[in-house]
Amino acid sequence: MSKPKVIVTRRWHPEVEAVLVDRFDTQLNDDDHSMSVAELQDALRNADAVLPTVCDKVTAEVLGADNMRAKILGSNGVGFNHIDLDAAKAAGLTVTNTPEVLTDCTADLALTLLLAIARRSGEGERHLRNGEWTGWRPTHMMGSSVTGKTLGLIGMGRIARAVAARAAHGFNMKIIFHDPFPPRAEDIAGLNVTQCTSPEEVFAQADFISLHCPGGKETYHLIGSEAFKAMKPGAFLINTARGDVVDEAALVTALESGEIAGAGLDVFEQEPTVNPGLLQMENVVLLPHLGSATQETRKAMGMRVVENIEAFFAGDTPRDKLV
Ligand code: DGY
Q1: Average pLDDT, whole number, for the chain?
Q2: What are phi and psi of 258, to 5 degrees?
Q3: Does residue 79's CB lie within 6 angstroms of at least one atom of ligand 1?
Q4: Which whole number is the average pLDDT over 224-240?
């Protein structure tokens, strides 16, 4: 029996690519370019499975391709706001993602940003590399302490809970959260977290606010000018979720006016473009969407896609089926 044809839209972890090549009739994206609408449509016409990543916009237009051969989109990433799930379902496609395997890695990066912005480490490194450091002095680059402060989580899914565990046990932080779909009691047992009835209740109390909600129309610009007004003046915003949850123009205004103290961002509204206002600021730490970027995690994510498409082609329901 011939192997299913699989098209991978970007370069993946080399060990995963080797597995894909071994187990499927696989077409890799050798030069790792970002595929155009026409290329994604061609992939859907020519493969049994297309394996996109969170940077491929699999819109209704893309999914409107005629003579589609593909039956499954095995997406490499946990977030799925880059895929129009309704259009995929209407086109008869199964869609899968890669939950769980990137939870710890992304939580680690949220803490990286939290510490970096509180302790001014990006700014300090630039200062040192620029040859501006004149030596230790009591008033030099004072930041904000983290230990014992209040961390507010917007969303309380797996990644938020992993952040809560690190912050509570590692930094003795008080954890509060809001999630319109609150976790089961057993999922937060032992975390010592306090549930708030609204995001505003979180904004009013938190020294650090970390976003862990999905992107998409439900949460679009959830953090805008009203939210910044509701935050404490010394608050820091951390975003490892999705860029469009934050109104970036309003964030720039809030940072410029001192409404909040700083922001640590791994995701942006128009990736890979970053609001030029942010690029000029010292009180922000900016990373290029590195939440899941470790060797171990990227390999695990890729292997989870392999598992999903193998189950699909064996006639089983893939473990991470979204639609
Ligand atoms: C995801 O999987 O959704 C992440 O944003 C990629 O790191």
Answers
A1: 98
A2: 85, 10
A3: yes
A4: 98
